[in-house]
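Key result, reporting period 2: structure in, sequence out.
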């Protein structure tokens, strides 16, 4: 069962299984900011954990088969054969 946003159909099952790296660290940092009235100097520990997590994600390659560029290249190859 999908939801409609205006005339756009959104399938929530498609995005439910997507991996969300660093989500826990980001939520912890945002909660800390909310509790401390946006003073990030009080949330140094959460900020450092979030930065370390995002730095660790930089080295991981994305699945090329799911990107738009992969599909564009594949369709372009087939067209010129």
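The corresponding designed sequence is given below.
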């Amino acid at each position: 069962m999908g939801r409609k946003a205006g005339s756009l159909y959104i399938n929530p099952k498609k995005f439910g299984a997507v991996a969300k790296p660093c989500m826990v660290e980001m939520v912890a940092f945002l909660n800390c900011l909310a509790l401390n009235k946006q003073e990030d100097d009080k949330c140094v520990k959460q900020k450092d954990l979030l930065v370390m997590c995002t730095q660790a994600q930089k080295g991981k390659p994305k699945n090329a088969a799911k990107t738009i560029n992969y599909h564009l290249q594949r369709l372009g190859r087939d067209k010129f054969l």
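The chain is about 55% helix and 5% strand. The two ends are 40 Å apart (CA to CA). This case is discussed further under Risks and Mitigation.
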